[in-house]
Amino acid sequence: MDNKGEKSKKVTSKSPSFSLRSPSLNALRLQRIFDLFDHNGDGFITLEELSQALSRLGLNANLSDLKSTVESYIQPGNTGLNFEDFSSLHKTLDDCFFAGDDDDLASPAAADESDLAEAFKVFDENGDGFICARELQAVLKKLGLPEGGEMERVERMIISVDRNKDGRVDFFEFKNMMRTVKQIS
């Protein structure tokens, strides 16, 4: 833990969007991230898969640095991080780099609203208050999802959420969709 603690001192800014305050949304998000990073679907994220996923997100990491950070989380005999290992790594990184970010919000409802607003901003690339098919496609491509390669499929995703039929998803439509996902999980 000493090496991890030393590295955490280098980060000075905090990001409230790193960890969602809603446990069910955070668990769902973490599982989806794990599934995306586990490129071959074998239930393990290898160092190579992790490196590739970070590169796709524009976060190029030196493989030896990555190995020194992640190696202690991989259980003996495993080829990479299983979901439990990945969750432990995420929790440690969250605690080291972003501890204390929850203090500025008084209620769970305000925390949920803030999390949803942060998530919406990821998709609303031009900041106009709407998610159009092109913006959704760009994010899906960055995440390496196959849906991002087919504009027709992306447009169907927008239509399925677009209650006022304007061809875009506004924050309220996004929030309703996310609350439905939260209730299902």
TrEMBL record:
Keyword field: Calcium, Metal-binding, Repeat
Keyword Ligase part of the UniProt annotation: no
GO cellular component annotations of the record: cytoplasm
Region (Disordered): 1-20
Domain EF-hand: from-to ranges: 25-60, 111-146, 149-184
A Pfam family recorded for this sequence: EF-hand_7
GO molecular function, one term: calcium ion binding
Protein name from the UniProt record: Calcium-binding protein CML42-like
Organism from which the protein derives: Raphanus sativus
Lineage start: Eukaryota, Viridiplantae, Streptophyta, Embryophyta, Tracheophyta
Gene assigned in the entry: LOC108821787
